[in-house]
Amino acid sequence: MSFKVFLGKYSTFSNNHPFLDIFLSSFLTFLIFQASHFNAFISNCWVIIQNYLYLWRTKLEEFIKMKKITIAIDGFSSCGKSTMAKDLAKEVGYIYIDSGAMYRAVTLYSIENGIFNGNTIDTEKLKQDIKNIRISFKLNPETGRPDTHLNGVNVESKIRSMEVSSKVSPISALDFVREAMVAQQQVMGKEKGIVMDGRDIGTTVFPDAELKIFVTASPEIRAQRRYDELKAKGQKASFDEILENVKQRDYMDQHREVSPLRKAEDALLLDNTNLTIEQQKKWLFEQFNKITG
Ligand SMILES: Nc1ncnc2c1ncn2[C@@H]1O[C@H](COP(=O)(O)OP(=O)(O)O)[C@@H](O)[C@H]1O
Ligand SMILES: Nc1ccn([C@@H]2O[C@H](COP(=O)(O)OP(=O)(O)O)[C@@H](O)[C@H]2O)c(=O)n1
């Protein structure tokens, strides 16, 4: 072991008095080698300083990571999950991921690429294509919210259509589709500091999430909220059709074999039937503060 490496290693033994450590080690080196080894003295000092900088950076990173948490928001269709998830993420500077948008994007791809024949799905073709389906989120500066991109194309508006809503649940029940989406979602949440909403986030994607919420509201209220939203966007909408779709999707999502929609045992239940957007936002923020504050 060279002397330089030896000193570098030795210096990390005491982390309580780094400056004293640097000074003493350097002074010792200086005494031993005196002026004729001035270069060795300088370079040993530099190795020791680098070691400390590395140690402090690692500790700082650990501290930042420790403070960030993972937030999983699951629940029934159209009950306000993404509204509250987006608001919280914006407020606390976390990443927001709408996992439902990912299943919607796969569904749109299937519609546009002949994978649907009526209601029958060509699962073999989708299985082959799934590795070529790239889903990403990019901030829309106009709305201040992330838009969904499918293979580089902005599909945010298209994936919210009634056609996609009516076909998304059978697509999201396919095991290989779920496997691919869950793997991507777990990579997105690796560094924590994420709010993700969906159906299986607290049970499958992030079972160790520090904060889990399960949201519900009556089907009629949920259908009315979705109806109002579509109308406000100037889209055609029928309340009865939306209510039927909401009920059907709830049923399919709860009864599929892989990762069915259910409340994680350690999730907090929020029935927001009689809450305003502001009230539910406040409630969620309080839960966040209880854990991180
Ligand atoms: N507490 C609430 N009261 C009234 N409308 C709400 C409430 N929460 C959400 N909304 C509205 O309901 C619609 C569906 O909400 P969204 O967040 O997209 O639901 P989800 O993500 O659960 O499908 C949106 O138009 C949203 O603005
Ligand atoms: N984590 C998730 C998220 C959505 N999904 C599926 O994707 C569909 C659309 O999800 P979404 O969150 O956009 O649905 P809405 O509640 O917004 O209508 C759901 O009905 C589920 O079938 C899922 O299976 N798992």
Fold and architecture overview:
The chain is of the alpha/beta class and 293 residues long. The protein folds into two domains: 3-64; 69-292, P-loop containing nucleotide triphosphate hydrolases (Rossmann fold, 3-Layer(aba) Sandwich), CATH 3.40.50.300. It contains twelve helices and ten strands. The protein has helices at 3-11, 18-33, 38-67, 81-92, 99-112, 123-129, 162-172, 175-188, 201-205, 219-232, 239-255, 277-292; strands spanning 70-75, 95-98, 116-117, 120-121, 135-140, 145-150, 153-154, 194-198, 211-216, 268-271. The chain has a five-stranded parallel sheet with strand order 2-8-1-9-10. Helix 2 (18-33) runs antiparallel to helix 3 (38-67), helix 4 packs across helix 12 (277-292) and helix 5 (99-112) crosses helix 7 (162-172). The protein is elongated. The model is unreliable at 1-14 (pLDDT under 50). Cytidine-5'-diphosphate is lined by residues 77-78, 99-100, 103-104, 168-169, 172, 198-201, 249, 253. Keywords: ATP-binding, Cytoplasm, Kinase, Nucleotide-binding, Transferase. ATP binds at residues 75-83. GO terms for molecular function: ATP binding; CMP kinase activity; dCMP kinase activity. This is Cytidylate kinase. One of its GO terms (biological process) is pyrimidine nucleotide metabolic process.
